[in-house]
Amino acid sequence: MLIDGSKIADFCQILREGGQKVVFTNGCFDILHAGHVRYLKRARSFGDCLVLGLNSDASVRSIKGPARPINCQEDRAEVADALECVDYVVIFDEPTAEALITKVHPDVYVKGGDYTLETLPEGQIVQKYGGKVELVNLVEGRSTTNIIRKIQAGDSNG
Description:
Helix content: 25-40%
CATH topology: Rossmann fold
CATH architecture: 3-Layer(aba) Sandwich
Largest sheet: 5 strands, parallel
Strand content: 15-25%
Structural class: alpha/beta
CATH class: Alpha Beta
CATH superfamily: HUPs
């Protein structure tokens, strides 16, 4: 379900009051691939509901460059929302999820193992209020950037 960013704080508070353990992760999720799906399933396993913060098109461009995203935010949100492991999707405009983290106030914040607590300002916010941060291993060789490179090179090997 797509949730408006202005309503996400109240929405997550209701979930917690209902006894739900709220898990949050965020990212661009531009061309969804098996690495994304495995990551999101793993993230969901840390709690009762998974809130996915999805970078807006403008945010993706500021992070990845003018040729991105490949898929617009509406399509990326629809695809992510169709996954059984993703309960809620919220689109955000900032390059990091710090402001969104303060609204969602997750019990668990999940990011890929390519981050550390020192390079993850959102994780420090979560830890300050007593939340937990989980860094999970990524699937080696699986990335949207690699997929784009393979398409550009005409490489059909999976």
